[in-house]
Write a structure and sequence with these properties.
Blueprint lengths: L9 E6 L5 E6 L10 E6 L4 E8 L2
Antiparallel strand pairs: 1-2, 1-4, 3-4
């Protein structure tokens, strides 16, 4: 099955405190060249923490 245009732009977000992968999001690599850093809720830490883009 061929790769779709939505699956090639998927990235993983990893919690900066507990280092667990919690989220997958789409990223437009043409407009955003830097790594994503978002403040999201971590169910393992049970609080809002900084989530950074990680390698697959």
């Amino acid at each position: 099955m061929a790769q779709g245009k939505f699956t090639e732009n998927l990235i993983r977000l990893r919690c900066s405190q507990c280092k667990r992968t919690n989220y997958t999001v789409h990223k437009n690599k043409k407009t955003i060249e830097r790594k994503l850093e978002l403040k999201k809720y971590c169910p393992w830490c049970r609080k809002h923490t900084l989530h950074k883009e990680s390698k697959k």
